[in-house]
């Protein structure tokens, strides 16, 4: 039987999620025996033609050319899995979605007219259908191996969608929120990292994006009213690596809209 | 445009085995190389723009996301710049732990480059996976060395990509003695493999490449009076530059070059320069660990390296040094009094440069009195090397123009990979507009 063909694609991103595959030091060679790594620019000069059985897509869509390219990738892929916060939620670069990208361009580049970019950074699912989304900034390499293995064996991936709080309990951590009053995104954040931030005595900053059905309104209320977090801190934590994830975006807009309304009252 | 001779082009639309998205375009004819363009089509992500308004404490977490391969470098430069702005000097104990995590990143990043991105060029393979079929032990040992580097970053940083444990003033949590000793044992085992790696790297077949007198490299790296540079030092060069990070903007400038539309970093006084392992080595070889010096001598490696194809050897020597340094830090370890030094927001501007695996990484931030960032400037190593990479190709190519095109192209790609260019890092690099002269465009 022919080996399944695996392809790895990159859009706007830091390369950290595809690097997670190369960081599988113990499994990489075995994986390469199991599948045909047909397209993986970071790791190989070889390019085998599609179609591909499984495509892993890292990065968000930020240019018109990439908007076209992802359609071609989809066309070539039997299964398409997005890996990481950029591909599933637009990444940190989705902060432009809340700002004026022309002003951004003028700040960074001496010749802004040379820059070709879209005004938004959007997840892959905004452009093509996606078979599975693996969240995280960066993704967890164990979860990546599980997802690859699941697709190769045509079974559903065992990726829990509960919150970081559950992982914290499983690790036996003392709750940094309850015990130390540290603002923590854990209750609304998707599991997968192993609750490392609370394990290292800091609050979760939400790099795995929203869990299934998060109550972001309650969380931000508690942050402000009970933990004394400033409004800016609440918004900053919703608007970082998963700023474009609908649950975080909605809640952050609710806060900024309220800020602008209250700002209006002050002037009266 | 010249019409006379038959003009040929080399086009590599998407460079493999580099980090990020780049392309190469070379136009040449019988009279020589007419045009060399290393083009970067990594889409812009605007870090410097969206950092404005963010809290100074967020800078290490956010700037880490510029690069998945060297996040620690971004965290270290950002921390030092913030501490410079706030007038905070971490204790020697905290400084040692920062050096330890940086050693981890040097090891994992260098070893990734050595085995997975660069070595296949020398031995004629498409990838490390292909290479493993004929050289299984070499690749397996490489992966094992890399894994140890990741173990350091994991312990000190919480995870290998985008660590969560470093903060302005120190760490969120410091490791326990037991954790450090266990790590120390792993390091001792892998150090033996790292020694073998230097010998193996030195035995690879290197293309001969010399720059003539008028074209000599200017090497730029940090220099520290007592140690091989990593987290701090003065910015120095082989042409006599000797400045603090605070003076960087006065001596270096970034140019939005018309033919590539990508920012090139240049020395105001002299133009292109090279950062990275070769620059560090050439300016600081005396500060390498005793073992690293000894093994370098045994394999007959010079203390000044001018052939960029040998950067793979310099990287392996630096990996061995990083092992020695990490083991030394663990052996000498004294626990800090507190995991971090508290800081309070205040207005100011901070400057810092550290040595990312690929070379000098400069950060500058201005803060308002609430500690919000009002201005950010980040100059990654790859944008500093970009002009020198193009010059290498221009100088090297005439010797190779007789080669069949596929060989010529492979030679060019290998020359680019000498630099381990990290294109995602180069926050300034951008989508290239089509050339309007009617030529082909990559």
From TrEMBL, chain A:
Annotated NADH:ubiquinone oxidoreductase-like 20kDa subunit domain residues: 14-150
GO molecular function, one term: hydrogen dehydrogenase activity
Keyword hit for Iron-sulfur: yes
SUPFAM superfamilies in the cross-refs: HydA/Nqo6-like (SSF56770)
Enzyme Commission (EC) number: 1.12.1.2
Coiled coil feature spans: none
Domain of life, per lineage: Bacteria
UniProt keyword terms in alphabetical order: 3Fe-4S, Homeobox, Iron, Iron-sulfur, Metal-binding, Oxidoreductase
Pfam family, one: Oxidored_q6
InterPro entries, sorted: Hydrogenase_assoc-protein, NADH_UbQ_OxRdtase-like_20kDa, NiFe_Hase_small_N_sf
Region of interest (Disordered), residue spans: 248-268
Class of the enzyme per the UniProt entry, highest EC level: oxidoreductase
Cofactor: [3Fe-4S] cluster
Protein's UniProt name: NAD-reducing hydrogenase HoxS subunit delta
Natural source organism: Microbulbifer aggregans
UniProtKB/TrEMBL annotation, chain B:
Alphabetical keyword list: Homeobox, Iron, Magnesium, Metal-binding, Nickel, Oxidoreductase
InterPro entries named among the record's database cross-references: Ni-dep_hyd_lsu, Ni-dep_hyd_lsu_Ni_BS, NiFe-Hase_large
Transmembrane segments: none
UniProt GO MF annotations: DNA binding; ferredoxin hydrogenase activity; hydrogen dehydrogenase activity; nickel cation binding
Positions annotated to bind Ni(2+): 67, 70, 422
Co-factor(s): Fe cation; Ni(2+)
Entry's EC annotation: 1.12.1.2
Pfam families: NiFeSe_Hases (PF00374)
UniProt superkingdom: Bacteria
Keyword NADP: no
Residues engaged in binding Fe cation: 70, 425
Residues annotated to bind Mg(2+): 48, 378, 428
PROSITE patterns associated with the record: NI_HGENASE_L_2
Family to which the UniProt record says this protein belongs: Belongs to the [NiFe]/[NiFeSe] hydrogenase large subunit family.
Name used for this protein in its record: NAD-reducing hydrogenase HoxS subunit beta
Taxonomic lineage of the native organism: Bacteria, Pseudomonadati, Pseudomonadota, Gammaproteobacteria, Cellvibrionales
